[in-house]
Amino acid sequence: GAGVSQTPSNKVTEKGKYVELRCDPISGHTALYWYRQSLGQGPEFLIYFQGTGAADDSGLPNDRFFAVRPEGSVSTLKIQRTERGDSAVYLCASSQSSSGVGELFFGEGSRLTVL
Amino acid sequence: GENVEQHPSTLSVQEGDSAVIKCTYSDSASNYFPWYKQELGKGPQLIIDIRSNVGEKKDQRIAVTLNKTAKHFSLHITETQPEDSAVYFCAASTGTYKYIFGTGTRLKVLA
Predict the structure, then answer these.
(1) What pLDDT, in 10s, does the model give residues A13-56?
(2) CA-based nearest residue in chain A for residue B44
(3) What 3-state DSSP class applies to A82?
(4) Taking CB atoms and an 8 Å cutoff, what residues of chain B touch A59?
(5) Mean pLDDT to the nearest integer, B8-36
(6) What's the burial of B44, exposed, middle or buried (CB within 10 Å: 0-12/13-18/19+)?
(7) Cβ distance of A42 and B102 shorter than 8 Å
(8) Considering only CA atoms, which of A47, A54, A85, A91 is closest in space to residue A72?
(9) CB contact under 8 A, B101 and A44
């Protein structure tokens, strides 16, 4: 079946604008993660969903960042009042594991550029 | 919190030679150590993982070793091929969903 799908693949916006990044996980995967990857760095944890609820949002850098997963499938990462420092690749991953440990299946990412 | 250091940041090897990438972690409670391969424009993909009750694991040309006492683990790729060229990330987890990734190693296999 299809892997994790992320849209848009590229997003260029101006400082101060609002953006939404969408993730469509592998069907049946209850665990969903958002990571942020800056140039030359490893993925950095942002938020973890188990089902519809955010089990851990401790990685969100500040209150401009918010993510939802209303029906336990598709998730949207929302960034308000974007800043140049938000520029990065935002990776979504899903997993079958209910404990959280196990293979993460990553999408290709959404590259966000804030001018 | 957990900190994972990864070395080297870049590695060039001749085709057919071996490549070794090393990681150290700080949290002695970490018990799960996956390795991911990321090709240009793609998301990371799991290539091998190891749990703390095992010292070594091998899958064809890829092997991972774990030294819990020293808190380090390594990825070994033998008989390297051009398609092994990519960025490799190690990660550590204390058995929860929160993986801490290293900063990555860019491997170039020269034909």
Answers:
(1) 999 999 999 999 999 999 999 999 999 899 999 999 988 888 89
(2) A106
(3) coil
(4) 98
(5) 96
(6) buried
(7) yes
(8) A54
(9) yes
